[in-house]
Structure formats: C-alpha cells, structure tokens
Automatic annotation (TrEMBL):
Top-rank taxon: Eukaryota
Pfam family name, one: Ras
Protein name: small monomeric GTPase
Record EC number: 3.6.5.2
Catalytic activity: GTP + H2O = GDP + phosphate + H(+)
Class of enzymatic activity (EC top level): hydrolase
Provenance organism: Cyanoderma ruficeps
SUPFAM superfamilies: P-loop containing nucleoside triphosphate hydrolases (SSF52540)
GO cellular component, one term: membrane
Length: 182
C-alpha cells in the first residue's frame, strides 16, 4: 500500500510501476484508482504484487507492505512523515514491510528536502530509504522489487537460503538522482 500526504505522487508511482507511464497534471486522483496487480519474477519465483494507494481513513491491517512517500518539493509532506509513522505503528501489522520514499527528485529546482534529511529520518526509524521519481522512473522498479523480494523471502522461508536483508539490498541497488545532492 502506498501511503503519504495528498499530492506526493502515490497514484503516479503506482501507474509508473504498472504501466511504465507518467501522469502529468491533476486529472487523476487516488480515490479513482484501486488495486493494481503486477507479477514480478524475483530470483526465479513469480511474486504477484497487489498495490493500492491508501485512501483517507486508517492504515489497513491487511497491508503486508507500506511504501511511505513524501514529496521532496513539499516540506510539509516531509514534516508529516512522523505523524504517518505514528499512525502506521498504531494501526498496521507489527511486522509490516516499510520503506520511506522521497518522490519527485526530477524537480531539482524546486527541491526543499535534502536527500540527507530523508536518510537521517529513515535511519532514526530504522526503515530503508530511497529517492524516487514517478516522472523519470528513477528507482520506481527497485522500490517494488525490493518489497517483492522481502515478501517472497518471508513467505517461502527456505532453510538453506541466506536471510534477505532489505536494507542492504536497497543500499546496494539504489541510484542517485544524478545531480544536486543538496
Ligand atoms: N515532477 C514530478 N511530478 C510528479 C511526480 N509524481 C507525481 N507528480 C505530480 O504530482 C501531482 C500529484 O500526483 P498524484 O500521483 O496524483 O499524487 P497522490 O499522492 O496520488 O495524491 P492524492 O490522490 O491527492 O492522494 C500530479 O500533478 C503529478 O503529475 C514526480 O515524480 N515528479
């Protein structure tokens, strides 16, 4: 489930992941989008992800994973992350897979939240972090693949398989926005 303030790009991230396209403008709203299924092949195993944006109301207990988004061009959306985390800790499953995403990094001119600030917050809460762009596609596939891998490892629990470490995987695979690390 995709979670975060209105306008951070939940719908666009979902559409980019599912259809490989970017929706510009505001003609589409999260409430008009429901589940999107996509099958990813992870380490030779097919994992079906059912993704949906969170619509106002409480965080669903049914969600196995939450992608918590803020918009790097909107400070308020970043400041609200702590409130979202509190809500998540209160309402989501205890072992929900959680990842923090700073979206819209293609808008380098309008950036007001530094990458380091996202990293620091994520570290504080012990969640993996990456910056994304639904517009350019940066790290979008990676975010969902990382979740799929974690869920696959959790559900299969093969005895001889080394434990999958989501943090390490994300750190290794994540791409920077290419410029302006300010
Ligand atoms: N530049 C840029 N714009 C984006 C990106 N992602 C989304 N947007 C724009 O941001 C606006 C809001 O995107 P949505 O995907 O509708 O945001 P949302 O979080 O689903 O919003 P709600 O439906 O209100 O909860 C739209 O105008 C998008 O085109 C991105 O990565 N880069």
């Amino acid at each position: 489930m995709l979670v975060g303030d209105s306008g951070v790009g939940k719908t666009c991230l979902l559409v980019r992941f599912k259809d490989g396209a970017f929706l510009a403008g505001s003609f589409i709203s999260t409430v008009g989008i429901d589940f999107r299924n996509k099958v990813l092949t992870v380490d030779g195993v097919k994992v079906k992800l059912q993704v949906c944006p969170h619509v106002p109301g409480s965080i669903s207990l049914a969600a196995l994973a939450l992608l918590l988004l803020y918009d790097v061009t909107n400070k308020a959306s970043f400041d609200n992350i702590q409130a979202w985390l509190t809500e998540i800790h209160e309402y989501a499953q205890q072992d929900v897979v959680l990842m923090l995403l700073g979206n819209k990094v293609d808008s380098a001119q309008d950036r007001v939240v530094k990458r380091e600030d996202g990293e620091k917050l994520a570290k504080e809460y012990g969640v993996p972090f990456m910056e994304t762009s639904a517009k350019s596609g940066l790290n979008v596939e990676l975010a969902f693949t990382a979740i799929a891998k974690e869920l696959k490892h959790r559900s299969m629990k093969l005895p001889n398989e080394p434990k999958f470490k989501l943090h390490d995987y994300v750190k290794k695979e994540v791409r920077g926005s290419g410029c302006c690390r300010s």
